[in-house]
Design a protein that fits this description.
about 20% helix, elongated, signal, about 180 residues, single chain, 2 helices, three-stranded antiparallel sheet, alpha+beta, 2 domains
């Protein structure tokens, strides 16, 4: 019996090490400069286990699922650049974008507070926050740019279908792009 328990403990330890290793590799593959210390501070935010099907409050995301329960995490007080892995199907709060996706998880980034001209690659289907436009697209990703804080008369080429923020107008169009201008 003791050998069986030791074997199970060893297997569980190997699985945990493997999971941590895969998480570290996934983080290394992103363009993020987010430090482990910042992630540790962020992951210490308030969490709560709730039954599947329970409503999820605004500003909370689903970070884990086990049996008939979901762990939700409060991300309301995030600051620019913070990132967190969430379950597929989790709500994506206002100001967050999806920058990477796996079969079961989305890696999301908080972009409110970005300076004018800041660019972020996001997955197709990611929410585009207010004040951001799509300036380039590939088969799986969109490059978005923050245009909040623009000066009168500034112009930006955006993809057709990009949101046009308040105060901006389309001044010219091509087959795939619109030239937009800030009028205030």
């Amino acid at each position: 019996m003791i050998k069986k328990n030791t074997a199970i403990l060893t297997i569980c330890s190997l699985l945990a090490i493997s999971a941590f290793s895969m998480h570290a590799q996934a983080r290394g593959a992103t363009e993020s400069t987010f430090t482990l210390n910042q992630e540790s501070n962020f992951s210490s935010l308030q969490t709560q286990w709730i039954p599947l099907g329970s409503p999820i409050p605004d500003g909370w995301v689903v970070t884990r699922s086990s049996g008939n329960m979901n762990e939700i995490t409060n991300v309301k007080n995030a600051s620019y650049g913070q990132e967190i892995w969430v379950m597929l199907g989790s709500p994506i709060p206002d100001g967050w974008v999806v920058i990477r996706s796996t079969g079961t998880m989305n890696f999301i980034k908080f972009v409110k507070g970005a300076s004018y001209g800041q660019e972020v690659w996001v997955m197709l289907g990611s929410p585009i926050p207010d004040g951001w436009v799509v300036i380039r697209s590939t088969g799986t990703m969109n490059l978005i740019m923050n245009v909040k804080g623009a000066s009168y008369g500034q112009e930006v080429w955006v993809m057709l279908g990009s949101p046009i923020p308040d105060g901006w107008v389309v001044t010219r169009s091509t087959g795939t792009m619109n030239l937009i201008k800030y009028l205030g």
